[in-house]
Amino acid sequence: MQELGRHRPLSVRSPALQPYFFDSKAFERAQPGPTVQLIARDAFVAETSIKLDQMLLELKALGRDLQLVKSDIAELREDASRSYRLSEFLDREHKTRATKLEDLARKFEYLKSRFDAIDGNSKGDYHAFQTFEAVSRRLTELGGLEREFRDVSWKLKLSVGLFAASLAVWLIVLTVG
After folding, report:
1. Confidence band for 12, pLDDT divided at 50, 70 and 90
2. String of b and e for 136-174 (b: at least 16 CB within 10 Å)?
């Protein structure tokens, strides 16, 4: 599809600014016709007519160029609108990711504080548990503590049972004797 005055086809996406050159042949004077003796008024009318024709051609060329400029401005506005929408989208995505990252950091800090409370390690020295061997060693220590707790629990139950038996014996001795 070609517009009047253009010598190349329109592309789907034209550059932002196009060269707006006039067709220089349109403004050149026509070859003079046969020479006839004109009076001054006729010469003035002829010159004015030629200048008006030249101005009319120039005005038409400027009108075409103005239409081209308008279409280019519309394209630039559309591109600017698309770029603005894209930047708004990217900003929203960035803010969403930052919010998710902050939420994850808060959850990590919460879990870290809970782990410190359970483990009793207030310094937060987690570099000691970077290998399976270190984790296994720590689990073995905790297993040993659990066994000691069971032994103490069993001994405490035995002690309570013996104490109850001794109270029963004392009660029988006091009532019989």
Report:
1. very low
2. eeeeeeeeeeeeeeeeeeeeeeeeeeeeeeeeeeeeeee
